[in-house]
Amino acid sequence: MSTSEELRRNVEQHKPKNTVSKNDDKTVALVMTRVVSYLNDRFQLKDMGYYLEYVKSIRLGDLIGIIKGYDKRVEFAVLAKDTSAMKPDGGILVLRKSDDDKYRRIALAVEMKHQGTNDKRLLEGKKKQAQGNAIERLGKNLIGVRATLQYEKVTPFVCFGWGVDFAEGSSIRDRVITMNEFYPLNRIFVHKRDGYAPVSMYFRETEWQEDELFSVMKEIAEASITTYIY
Fold first, then answer.
1. Separation between Cα atoms, residue 208 and residue 230, nearest integer Å
2. Residue 161: exposed, middle, or buried by beta-carbon count in 10 A (0-12, 13-18, 19+)?
3. In the 8-state DSSP scheme, what is residue 215?
4. Cα–Cα dist 76/56, whole Å
5. Which range is least confidently modeled, 66-70, 78-82, 172-176, 212-216?
6. What is the mean pLDDT of the chain?
7. CA-based angle 159:114:182, to the nearest 5?
8. Which residues contact 4 (CB under 8 A, 6 or more apart)?
9. Helix-strand-coil percent breakdown of the chain, rounded to 5?
10. Are β-strands 58-59 and 92-97 bridged in parallel, bridged antiparallel, or unpaired?
């Protein structure tokens, strides 16, 4: 299935848990079509023997296979299930080679998190609820991407978070900062620095718009592909 067909299926058939996440996932999928188009034009990937594959999930066994391909690590756990997979909210963009089926490089992994309903509850005269755990679910996917790209110069992972729990002054933002190895929020980080692998964590109270997502996503993917190819 082509990347464009997979993206279209994701837009039309994705079945998220609630209306907010459904709209977020559709928006990210639409933005990803723009990113793929931009990258194909920017690099002329087909002429260079490369192509982009968009996937909603990637098996953990395949991630281990990528790590093994660097011939630097020999010890790995045995997975309980062959179907175990990493599934970021916004999917994964993978750089492939036309003449090498084993070549896979993560060009962009996207998460989208909405957290916080207390503003609406207060307007409805209801009591506050405990702050949610949307960002806690980021952990395993971020670890998976960092582990897979241990031997690369880049970590092209981005999370867009929005909602009242991510407003300025919220302690939830401190959790995100800790998760990002104490690097600042709302800045693009692609290349490793000082022995760390910071990623791009964009968090605020108001919803992210399509053009904003595109601006960040295409810059991250462009930087990672440039590093892989050149």
1. 32
2. buried
3. H
4. 24
5. 172-176
6. 87
7. 40
8. 33, 36
9. 45, 20, 35
10. unpaired
